[in-house]
Amino acid sequence: MQLWNRNDSGSPSHAVDNTSGFDFILLEFLQPVELLSLTNSWTSGYSWVSVGAFAANPFAGGSVNWQQVANSAIQTASYKDTGINTPYVFANNSSIEGTGITSTFANYWLIGAYNPVFNGGNYGLGDNIKFASITTKTFVPDNTDTPVQVPEPGTIALFSLGLIGLLYRRRA
């Protein structure tokens, strides 16, 4: 986990906010995961959140601006009124503008206070949030469409051996 916090000198300390720039938390996972929900433990002002899904670390190439970060995302979305002490389930809510992030799997997730470049909108700032938890779901590939070949001669030989064993046991 990495934290991008531009300015933490004001109140509240250690909150993710969009007061003097934009603060985000970058989460890295070994396998692709879907971001299902988040729970805020504290908010001040609005409780608007922006999220982005990424295949690679969007900051790995050096100095980038927020528009470049958003453009490199698999998907971005912003949500308003995410509340406090109750899981905010992304699938149950619509993004401020555009589509949400449901059914999106990624190795990197960027979560922070509302940032207008993540959804094309231009709304007010003043979000101060402390995240308590996030919930994810690991990507599991679907292999049900791939038939498995069973060699017929080996299966017949094994079945025949079983029958011979039953007949021998019955005679003994």
From TrEMBL:
Residues 149-171 form the Ice-binding protein C-terminal domain. It comes from the Bacteria. InterPro entries: Ice-binding_C, Xrt_dep_XDP1. This is Ice-binding protein C-terminal domain-containing protein.
